[in-house]
Design brief:
- The chain is of the alpha+beta class.
- It has helices at residues 4-23, 155-185, 192-204, 214-233, 242-251, 256-274, 281-298, 304-309; strands spanning 27-31, 35-37, 42-49, 56-59, 69-76, 85-93, 97-101, 105-109, 116-119, 123-128.
- The strands form 3 sheets. The chain has a 4-stranded antiparallel β-sheet with strand order 1-3-6-5, with no helix packed on it.
- It is elongated and about 120 Å long.
- The relative contact order is 0.08.
Length: 310
């Protein structure tokens, strides 16, 4: 009896780890589709019966690797104390024909016991290719037939067409140059003040302001005023700085009254041209009106017969 007692105790102690290991296990039921399509997401529903109601289970995402499948998400579907536990897994297949979904590693934790790793079974799948619209189940058909040119021109016809286009372009360009040369050769008989007012009207409808070309607008405005002073009073306005032109206007009795206004306007033009200031629409309108006032104040008085007609 004394000999049997130690043997009995030893057998009992050796049986304890085996009993504990048997408790750290889970039974899996997996709902899967019959067939899946290449590169198309599908779902798996895992149901795991745990050894106890207080046990918890989570997936070990760090060890989930597979060349044939990519797991995109794993979502628990049951509460924290539910038994069995349910999980929904989303995955995408990337291998054709028969592909095996890998065994997943799950961490099982029960009170009073060391955490254990349990594995769900591998799952074979039939992976189908992506379906493609065909005609009668045959080969892939084109969306539209191949383009065929309605006719074929010989090389000499293309050469003649290119020569005709070049000749037409040269003719039109030559006519435009001749017209511009004729217009430039004809003397402008308008009085300086009338010409300046007409040029201001043309500036407003030139689309320079609407196109955002503010610097060109103010350069043209300054040139109109300087050209007027040159034609009307014989000043070399285009060769003088704004300050030098102001001093010249102050010296002449006919222009003393507009010297200050002209200097202010030319300074505004210089700020846009050289300091790159961006004027507002209201400032633009005020500058054009100031130029009109300068021209009207310095215009020659009307002839006696013109006054009588009025």
């Amino acid at each position: 009896m004394k000999r049997l007692t130690p043997l009995f105790l030893l057998s009992w102690l050796l049986a304890l780890p085996a009993s504990g290991a048997a408790q750290q296990d889970a039974a899996f039921k997996i709902a899967k589709p019959q067939a899946i399509t290449l590169a198309t997401p599908f779902q798996l529903d895992f149901e795991a019966a745990l050894p106890g109601s207080n046990c918890a289970m989570s997936i070990d995402t760090a060890t989930q690797t597979s060349d044939a499948f990519e797991i995109t998400s794993i979502t628990p579907q049951s509460g924290p104390k539910a038994n069995p536990k349910t999980f929904r897994l989303d995955a995408i297949p990337f291998a054709l024909d028969i592909a095996t979904f890998p065994a997943l590693s799950w961490k099982l934790s029960c009170p009073g016991q060391e955490p254990a790793i349990v594995k769900s079974p591998e799952l074979p799948f039939q992976v189908l290719p992506v379906s493609t619209p065909t005609a009668g189940g045959g080969d892939i058909i084109d969306i539209r037939p191949q383009y065929a040119p309605p006719f074929h021109m010989p090389w000499w016809a293309w050469l003649a067409l290119g020569a005709a286009i070049a000749a037409l372009y040269w003719y039109l360009r030559r006519r435009r140059e001749e017209k511009q040369a004729l217009e430039q050769s004809m003397p402008d008989t308008r009085p300086p003040h009338v010409r300046a007012l007409d040029e201001l009207d043309a500036l407003l409808i030139s689309q320079l302001w609407e196109d955002g070309r503010f610097m060109e607008f103010y350069i043209r405005l300054s040139a109109i005023l300087r050209s007027y002073f040159e034609r009307r009073f014989g000043l070399s306005a285009d060769r003088l700085t704004s300050l030098e032109l102001y001093r010249a206007l102050q010296k002449a009795p006919e222009t003393q009254q507009v010297a200050g206004s002209a200097r202010t306007l030319l300074n505004e033009c210089d700020m846009v041209k050289f300091a790159k200031q961006v004027p507002t629409a209201a400032q633009k309108d005020a500058a054009v009106e100031k130029a009109r006032d300068i021209v009207n104040q310095t215009a020659p008085p009307p002839m006696p017969e013109q006054q009588a007609v009025k």
